[in-house]
C-alpha cells in the first residue's frame, strides 16, 4: 500500500466554495435551528475540505458542526463525505472519566 501524499495545504477551490452544499447537508441532519454561521474551513488533503459551522444548541456551548466535502480527481462534482459535532477551542467538556473503584476512595 502506498502512502497518501498531500501536495498542497491550499484548499481546493470547488470544495472551498461548497459552503451552501455543506450547510444543506447539515440542516438535513441537525435541523435549521441548530446550524449557525460559517466559521471557516480546514484543509484535509488534496480535494478534501472540512467546513465549520457554529452550533446553536444551548446544550453545546463552544461546540461546532464540521462537514467534510471532497472531490474526486478530475471530477467537477463535490460530494459530502461526513458530518459531526466537534468541540471547539472554548467548548465545555465533560471531566475525565474515573473508574468507580477510584471514585470511592
Structure explained in plain terms:
- The chain has 105 residues and is an alpha+beta fold.
- Strands 1-2-3-4 form a four-stranded antiparallel beta sheet.
- The chain contains three helices and four strands; from the N terminus they run ααββββα.
- The protein has helices spanning 13-16, 19-30, 100-104; strands at residues 35-45, 48-55, 63-71, 78-87.
Spatial extent as radius of gyration? 17 Å
Mean pLDDT: 90
Oligomeric state of this protein: single chain
How many individual β-strands?
4
Large-scale geometry? elongated
How many individual helices? 3
Proportion of strand residues: 35-45%
| Biggest sheet features | 4 strands, antiparallel
- State the strand order across the main sheet: 1-2-3-4
Element pattern in H and E = HHEEEEH
Low-confidence stretches: 1-6
Task: Give the N-terminus to C-terminus distance in angstroms.
Answer: 49 Å
Kindly state the percentage of residues in helix. 10-25%
Show the helix and strand layout.
Elements: H1 13-16, H2 19-30, E1 35-45, E2 48-55, E3 63-71, E4 78-87, H3 100-104
Report a brief summary of the structure:
This protein is α+β, with helices and mostly antiparallel strands and 105 residues long.
Key attributes of the depicted protein:
single chain; 105 residues; alpha+beta; 4-stranded antiparallel β-sheet; 3 helices
